[in-house]
Amino acid sequence: MKITKGNTVNDFKGLILLPFFENENGTQSREEFLHISVSNSLFSGKKDSQFIIEEKESGNIFLFIGLGKNPEYKSVKTAFRRLTAKQGDLFKDQVLLYLTDEMDKNILEAAVSGLVLGTYRLGHYKNTEAAPKDWTKISLFIKSGLNDAEKVTEKARKIADAQIETFHMVDLPPNKITPEFLAEWAQKAGRKYGFETRVFDKKKAEKENLKAFLAVGQGSDKEPRFIIMEYRSKSATKHLGLVGKGVTFDTGGLNIKTQGMVQMKCDMGGAAAVLGAMQLIGDLKLNVNVTSVVPCVENSVDSKSFLPSDVIGSYSGKTIEVIDTDAEGRLILADGLNYLIKNYSPDTVIDFATLTGSAVGTFGYECAALFTKNEELSKKLQESGESIGERVWPLPMWDVYKTEMDSDIADIKNYHGKPIAGAITAAKFLEYFTESHDSWAHIDIAGTAFGDSEFAKTKHATAFGVHLLIKLLENH
């Protein structure tokens, strides 16, 4: 979809999108289209409501969109995504989005992002007679009273583009999205968006003593990749470190999963969020330094797989007793976090991981579990997420949970073996490898990275975390 500059209204021909706040007082229309109106009894602007009018003389189609009384960012985004996702046949050559003066930049950003996101389809490998719709041939015009409407629109497009890239990484099958694929993606994106990328293959990872990372991938014929990305801005005053869990498929290892394995292509949702965020940071040219580490492996079952009761090493030098090979994500994160902190010393460190079913059991699919001892960082993350509908909520990091991970034979064990406090004890395990960093947050996105929605018949990617990180950087 091409977004065209200018506030073209006069003599416009095509689809005209008219969003409205809920209005209980009368007829809804726009000044330029007073001859096209709908009575309050048929359309009042209620959330998720629509009304369509076709003008026979001009051939224009007027689509009235209800946003509700005080719409949240996410609900606006969803309302517009619904249009391109479900009513794509209405979108021909030209589309005009007409906002009133009372609709602020958040409404514009959410609307444009939603329209772009709605062009995404899951049928990547379907053989169909009809060619897929070519959205690049459709021009979107914006009518808005905002002075910076063009800037807001361009930003919205870039947000959606990065999120769609994240969709692809999570939704495509594991025989496509391998550690090698993600490493190549990061290298190409770095060249395009202005960040440096280094990749450790298995031999280089062995030289770097990334032992916990290597242990997880040793049962797979798909070699692991340890990705490091560096984005630098000359005017930066802060340095953010990111780590994303990149288990491209998780069988559970020898502690094999007995159910739900078909969904385990999503176990690299944290990696996808960090990779998508790096694209967006570079695309927006943010004034911040960012170093990201994405350890990528496949946790498979083979005679070479690591065993329950193995004791393995780690980049930190600390030893780990393996209680459960299905608690593998925390092992690669341990090396990723420790490598990042020791070699780059970022001011703040945030990791994203589809880590535990416990987080889903606590919060369902409404928000991610947040772990940090830094109250200021916790507040900033909560505020940023709330403003765009990517909610995070804190769980305790009390040291009383630390003893749950004590091992008799090694420095720490990777799983406490109990059906309680799973997300919390996983966070305490990760904390052990952060060198007591005073501004570190772990975000467990097991319930938010991949799920059901109205936009597909099966579970699919959400790109949770991409926009959250940008919002955090922009506001704080």
Biggest pleated sheet? 9 strands, mixed
Number of domains: 2
Radius of gyration: 24 Å
Instruction: State the secondary-structure class.
Output: alpha/beta
What CATH calls the topology of the largest domain is: Aminopeptidase
Strand residue percentage: 15-25%
Number of helices: 12
How does this structure look, described?
With 476 residues, this protein is an alpha/beta fold. It folds into two domains: 143 residues, 3-Layer(aba) Sandwich (Leucine Aminopeptidase, subunit E, domain 1); 317 residues, Aminopeptidase. The strands form four sheets. Strands 7, 8, 9, 10, 11, 14, 15, 16 and 18 form a nine-stranded mixed β-sheet that branches. A six-stranded mixed β-sheet has the order 1-6-5-2-4-3, covered by helices on one side. InterPro entries: Leucine_aapep/pepB, Macro_dom-like, Peptidase_M17_C, Peptidase_M17_leu_NH2_pept, Peptidase_M17_N.
